[in-house]
Amino acid sequence: MIIAGNWKMFRGPDPHALGGLDAIVAPPFTRLRDCVDAGLTTYAQNVHWEAEGAFTGEISAPMLLELGVTGALVGHSERRQYFGETDEGVARRARAALAAGLAVIACVGETQEERDEGDTETVLQIQVGAIRNACGMHDRLLLAYEPVWAIGTGRTATPETAQDAHAFIKSLLDRPVLYGGSVKPDNADELMSQPDVDGALVGGASLDLDSFAALCLTASHS
Ligand code: PEP
């Protein structure tokens, strides 16, 4: 079971206080070095497809590797929603990161409107398809199913909804799939006991040391 904490644009807890936890952390760029130095498995929250160039505000895979970073998230719904990232761009980011030697957690998931319209599988097919075509079954590639309506909203997919989506995603690309969307200590056990849920990508609850530690403990028993 894999637990990954996405600190978004928050400073997050003291990396040294997380020392004993078996987890991935994805802090903002300014805290990457602190997390690496604390011995944590550290992912960036994004990565560009070029090694260098005139891309203000971006960071490349070789730069992250130089810092000791292990991997990167790509395609988080907040990147897709607020910064216009496309399936094609997400796939390019994933491919470049893997080729450079990073691990990747590629995020996919439908909006509430898409779910209401019955389009969940179509959306997943398009998003996962773009990643599959660019990366194939790479052994450093993980996926995260993060229904947009459950991220930061306090609404969690039911274990059955998560299981259905994960099984569908694996039928498209057979890699481990983390669930993300308001995972907390009190709902993690049920979610992680689903056969195709391979861990959790945690936003809000990863910012609090006690709840993140509790999630890691739950994962170690699942
Ligand atoms: C996330 O940011 O990936 C996430 C799942 O956030 P939250 O746990 O707060 O819903």
Write a short abstract of this structure.
The protein has 222 residues and is an alpha/beta fold. The chain has helices at 32-37, 61-67, 77-82, 87-100, 112-116, 120-135, 159-172, 185-192, 209-221, and strands at residues 2-6, 24-26, 41-44, 71-74, 103-108, 141-145, 177-180, 199-202. The longest helix is centred in the middle third of the chain and has 16 residues, at 120-135.
Instruction: Determine the number of helices (DSSP H or I, runs of at least 4 residues).
Output: 9
Class computed from helices, strands and strand pairing: alpha/beta
Q: How many β-strands, per DSSP?
A: 8
Shape summary: globular
The biggest beta sheet reads: 8 strands, parallel, barrel
Major sheet: order of its strands? 1-2-3-4-5-6-7-8
Q: Please state the average pLDDT score.
A: 96
End-to-end Cα distance, whole Å, is 7 Å
Identify the bound ligands: phosphoenolpyruvate
Low-pLDDT segments, ≥5 res: none
Q: What share of residues is helical?
A: 40-55%
